Amino acid sequence: MTIHKEGYTSLAITILFIFVLNALIQFYMPTAHTLKWIVYIFSGALFLIILQFFRSPFFDIETAENTILCPADGKVVVIEETEETEFLKEKRIQLSVFMSPVNVHVNRNPIAGVVSYFKYHKGKYLVAWHPKSSTENERTTIAIENSKGVTVLFRQIAGALARRIVWYVKEGDIVDQGQQFGFIKFGSRVDVFLPLGTKILVNIGDVVKGGRTVLAELVDPEPVKEAAKPDAIVVPESPVAPVEPAVLVEETPTMNSITPAPSLVVDRPEDAESPVAEEEATEKPAKKATAKKAKQADDAAEEADNE
Question: How far is it, in rounded angstroms, from Cα 141 to Cα 164?
């Protein structure tokens, strides 16, 4: 346990006041023993009250993404559904914790994430349990968005005695769950605004501890449903004519099929002569010579008959 840094000045002023008071009593009324004992008791009690008010205990903090840690020591005084009109502008579950002067007044982040909103409001100093203290008293409003996109908003609210609100965060900061985000001096209240559907784990009147008591459990947001895709248009295929089976025909082998002719590469097809044309050109002179000899023989026979 240590003394919070916000209490150094207050403790110094308290010690100075006690010293001056006791010095005056001792100097001006040295024989008033009863009064001196009353002043001693009062001085000790005042010092202990201020000391315990600014105490800052050490403890282990168990963190979880779906839990809401209590932001301060105190008592649960409000659990209700209400409209958050400053930043979220939607219905939320409001859970309020009242801190008396004897509670630890360190304020801690209920969730981890990014500070998406911060604003300080000057205002009145109504008692912390007054219904309008949440909107009319001096206060700060802080919203943190976690990695799943869930935003939790909470407020530090000054009370009739608590006229000094301290905060350590600003918009855009990345914060841890249970980490100190502020301090309120001498009695106050913290409101937490949770999404509808959050599972509340405490009741009105419960005594809670900041950074240790789990106030609620978040419900994972429903995934965004994709728009239904239209069914694909199926175009009917045109009927295919049946294919007749192929018929194999056996061919009688020929000379050309047995002895293939040599391949002939022709640059100019019009100048090339086929083998059949060459054969006919060779046979023509032979036929002419045979016909000539036959004619000569006929002429000789005719001359013999004439004689």
Answer: 15
pLDDT in tens, 196-247: 999 999 999 999 999 999 999 998 766 555 555 555 555 555 555 555 555 5
Residues assigned a catalytic role: 188
Strands (DSSP E) contained in the chain are 2-3, 55-56, 67-69, 74-84, 90-99, 106-108, 113-121, 139-145, 151-158, 165-167, 174-175, 180-184, 188-194, 199-200, 207-208, 214-217
Q: Which of 159, 190, 217 is the last residue of a domain?
A: 217
pTM, rounded to two decimals:
0.67
User: Are 114 and 15 in a shared domain?
Assistant: no
SS3 assignment, position 239: coil
- Residues 46, 171, single domain; the answer is no
Are both 31 and 73 inside the same structural domain? no
**Quick one: DSSP state of residue 11?**
H
Rounded Cα distance between 293 and 173, Å, is 128
Nearest C-alpha neighbor of 134 from the set 186, 183, 77: 77
Identify whether 305 is part of a domain.
no
